[in-house]
């Protein structure tokens, strides 16, 4: 396990967490190690099926994907990092009114309360929504994970989560956390569990030794860091890949990139829409964040066009094959 936080003082940890809140600049845990190529197939820990949302709701314009435990998840959602307070409440309510059903939050973002309030204001039934939260690294270990989970539920004002992820397994007893999450999964308090920012060795370890296999892996993925190897690995193991920072937060000039702009012009779409369509066509769930209703609407308007082979071929060489968030590596 690549352990970046071991040995850090509480002060350093707090500084680290504050920086995370303030800069949006979380990097993924790098998939540095080649997979040990554990060719095992998933043995699902307790396959269960869950009700799909009822037909005819606006959210159904966004396609849903079936995860490895039978749970259905929207293929596009709203990211909420930095959307704190009233802004967060408004964005979540706006997104739901525009058809979003997947909302991604995390304890460390400080957005669980506004997400809960936005959901309440939306008037949409809880069971129509797909809510993700994440266990931060200060809550690693069996007991702390159980408490951390309950705190997230309380803040979100809900009695279950659709998806709960280990946010950053870079220190502490993350396997104890996984054990707690497996129990909560079996109790029906979490419908799917997964990882974020794990490396290949950690994923191999979970595949080989856990009772409930991860349904999701959420990692930094965008045109400048395409994560082809991770994509292949996750497909091979039946784990749904989810992209954080699907726009690289606009870093490296993503929104003005000439190649992406030319493709956008060709389809009469925007660069943001081209990026999200590219994620969709790669089979990756994306959770773009926006604080503006116009952008939230633009980002969900990607289901009426397709990128063709020449577009995909043009995007491929944009890959810099490295994180755009080096401060978190
Ligand atoms: N698991 C992890 O470690 C991890 C790490 C980072 C993020 N995440 C999750 O992933 C989500 C998304 O990643 P992110 O927030 O880092 O960045 P992102 O979604 O790649 O980019 C957000 C930026 O894009 C802009 N934007 C959004 N839509 C736009 C549009 N249509 N046109 C132009 N600009 C647009 C936003 O500005 P405006 O507000 O002005 O629209 C904002 O500045 C997060 O919110 C969080 O939920 C997870």
Features:
329 residues; alpha/beta; TIM Barrel; 8-stranded parallel sheet; two-stranded antiparallel sheet; 10 strands; binds NADP nicotinamide-adenine-dinucleotide phosphate
Task: Show the helix and strand layout.
Blueprint: H1 10-23, E1 64-66, E2 72-74, E3 77-79, H2 85-97, E4 102-104, H3 112-122, E5 130-135, H4 142-156, E6 161-166, H5 174-186, E7 190-196, H6 200-209, E8 216-220, H7 228-236, E9 240-244, H8 258-267, H9 271-281, E10 285-286, H10 293-300, H11 309-315
Parallel strand pairs: 3-4, 4-5, 5-6, 6-7, 7-8, 8-9, 9-10
Antiparallel strand pairs: 1-2
Helix pairs in contact: 2-3, 4-5, 8-9
The structure holds NADP nicotinamide-adenine-dinucleotide phosphate (NAP).
Architecture overview:
The protein is an alpha/beta fold. It has a domain of 187 residues: TIM Barrel. 37% of the residues lie in helices and 13% in strands. It is built from 11 helices and 10 strands. The strands form 2 sheets. It has an 8-stranded parallel β-sheet with strand order 3-4-5-6-7-8-9-10. A two-stranded antiparallel ribbon has the order 1-2. Helix 7 links the parallel strand 8 and strand 9. Bound molecules: NADP nicotinamide-adenine-dinucleotide phosphate. The site of NADP nicotinamide-adenine-dinucleotide phosphate (NAP) has 28 residues, from helix 10. NADP nicotinamide-adenine-dinucleotide phosphate binds next to helix 10.
């Amino acid at each position: 396990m690549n352990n970046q936080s071991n040995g850090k003082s509480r002060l350093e940890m707090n500084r680290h967490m504050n920086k995370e809140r303030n800069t949006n600049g979380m990097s993924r845990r790098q998939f540095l190690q080649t997979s040990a190529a554990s060719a095992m197939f998933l043995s699902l820990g307790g396959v269960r099926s869950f009700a799909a949302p009822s037909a005819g709701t606006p959210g159904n314009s966004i396609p849903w994907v079936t995860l490895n435990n039978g749970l259905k998840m929207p293929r596009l959602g709203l990211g909420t990092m930095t959307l704190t307070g009233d802004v967060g409440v408004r964005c979540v309510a706006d997104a739901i009114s525009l058809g979003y059903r997947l909302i991604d939050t995390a304890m460390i973002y400080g957005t669980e309360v506004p997400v809960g309030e936005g959901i309440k204001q939306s008037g949409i039934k809880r069971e129509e929504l797909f809510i993700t939260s994440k266990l931060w690294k200060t809550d690693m270990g069996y007991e702390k994970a159980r408490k951390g989970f309950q705190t997230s539920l309380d803040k979100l004002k809900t009695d279950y989560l659709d998806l709960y992820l280990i946010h950053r397994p870079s220190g502490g007893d993350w396997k104890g956390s996984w054990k707690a999450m497996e129990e909560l999964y079996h109790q029906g308090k979490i419908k799917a569990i997964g990882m974020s920012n794990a490396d290949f060795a950690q994923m191999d370890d979970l595949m080989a030794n856990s009772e409930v296999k991860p349904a999701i892996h959420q990692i930094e993925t965008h045109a400048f860091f395409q994560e082809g190897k991770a994509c292949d690995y996750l497909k091979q193991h039946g784990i749904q890949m989810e992209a954080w920072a699907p726009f690289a937060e606009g870093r490296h000039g993503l929104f003005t990139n000439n190649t992406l702009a030319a493709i956008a012009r060709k389809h009469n779409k925007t660069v943001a829409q081209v990026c999200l369509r590219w994620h969709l066509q790669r089979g990756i769930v994306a959770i773009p964040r926006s604080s503006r209703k116009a952008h939230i609407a633009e980002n969900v308007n990607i289901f009426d066009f397709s990128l063709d082979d020449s577009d995909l071929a043009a995007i491929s060489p944009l890959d810099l094959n490295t994180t755009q968030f080096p401060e978190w590596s």
